[in-house]
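sorry for the late reply, my laptop died twice this morning and i had to redo everyting from scratch. anyway the thing you sent over, i finally got around to it. pasting the sequence first so we're on the same page, its 56 residues, then the predicted structure underneath. double check i copied it right bc i was rushing
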Amino acid sequence: MLDMEMARKAYQERIDSESYSDRNYTEEEKRLQREHRRELEEYRKNFLSVKNKQSK
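ok and here's the structure:
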C-alpha cells in the first residue's frame, strides 16, 4: 500500500509540475485530463483489488 501511495504522490507531483496555473486550457485538454484521471483511478482500484486477492 505504501508503494502505491508513493507512486501516486510522485505521479501527482509530475502532473503539478507540468501544469501552469496561468495557462488557459482548451476544453479538449480539460476533457483529456479528466479522462486520464478517471483511467488512473480505475487502474489504481483494479491494482489494489488484485493485490488484495494475492495477499489472501
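The chain is about 80% helix and 0% strand.
thats about all i looked at so far, will dig more tmrw
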